[in-house]
Amino acid sequence: MTTASPAPAGSRLRVEGMSVRFHLPDATVHAVTDAHFEVTQGACLTLVGESGCGKSVMAHALMGLLPGNATVTGSARLETGAASPVELIGAPERLLARTVRGRRIGLIPQSPAAHLTPVRTARSQITEALRELGSSETADDLAARAGLRPADLDLYPHQLSGGMAQRVVNAIALAGDPWLVIADEPTSGLDRPLVEVTMAELRRLADEGRAVLLITHDLRAAEQVADHVAVMYAGRVVSLAPAKEFFAAPRHPYAVGLLDALPSRRFTAIPGQPPELTNLPRGCAFRPRCTRAGAACELVPEMSAGHSRVACHHPVESHAAR
Ligand SMILES: Nc1ncnc2c1ncn2[C@@H]1O[C@H](COP(=O)(O)OP(=O)(O)OP(=O)(O)O)[C@@H](O)[C@H]1O
Ligand code: NI
Description:
Blueprint: E1 12-24, E2 27-40, E3 44-48, H1 55-63, E4 70-79, E5 86-87, H2 93-100, E6 105-108, H3 122-132, H4 139-145, H5 162-174, E7 180-184, H6 192-207, E8 211-215, H7 219-225, E9 228-233, E10 236-242, H8 243-248, H9 253-260, E11 309-310
Parallel strand pairs: 3-8, 3-9, 6-7, 7-8
Antiparallel strand pairs: 1-2, 1-4, 4-5, 9-10, 10-11
Helix pairs in contact: 3-4, 3-5, 6-7
Bound molecules: adenosine-5'-triphosphate and nickel (II) ion (NI).
């Protein structure tokens, strides 16, 4: 049975100044703008933010899976060993297909059912993934690691429950023993007990020495597993903080709003809507919804330095009582 991947301590994915634009006939979508973050060995970085803020696009950009109308700029370096780092942005398709996708980075896709072929059993899809990756592991062993019983593997996708379909795509994503696991909304549509199981599985992957990038709307789930939390708003990472500090004392007004919206907290949604990514406001994109906005916010705020980082001209001070 495979255990932790063999990447040395200190391995990381380092994203610097990454931007993604989609070129439409009459507009440009600013899907990701100037993203900076790191995912490190043994840790889980959780990326949160409202629907449409660019989370999945970021994941697909890292895997080289965006359509032809996308332009990706900046840098995303996979530093996992003595060999020279792999620059993912602009890497040739052959390199990504042969050495990155499924092998160094495994993607657990958003909406698992849509990623399974309806006319083939779970076993045949898992076996194919193992064969493509040249793995000697059996489908039954891999499936067992993902929490499936051998009998489940004889089922077709329409016979699988949401939780089982999730486990099948998890098994496929892990077939090549990837160092970085990107999980894009792995719990949407699952009930609470299954959310807990999925989060525990992601935590175990990180504890085994992998790195996990978890994309989710579910802040409660994030709190169980995250070491660091990155918040995206309108294509930008606006807050990057250790999870404990993020949940105890959020500094970005948008992060405060996201947490206040939780039923377990104030249960008060942030008024208004995020801007269109084809028509972003000048300066800080959160300004039209922000209670702390001032004149300075007409300029895009730089990311601050330090431990709990924010791109905000008027952050909530961490020591201030709210
Ligand atoms: N191929 C494309 N062409 C043009 N625009 C696109 C394309 N793919 C995504 N977008 C746009 O990029 C933006 C970011 O989308 P993305 O799927 O990353 O959002 P998300 O944060 O993952 O949202 P959700 O939480 O709903 O999954 C959206 O405005 C979306 O419409
Ligand atoms: Ni998404």
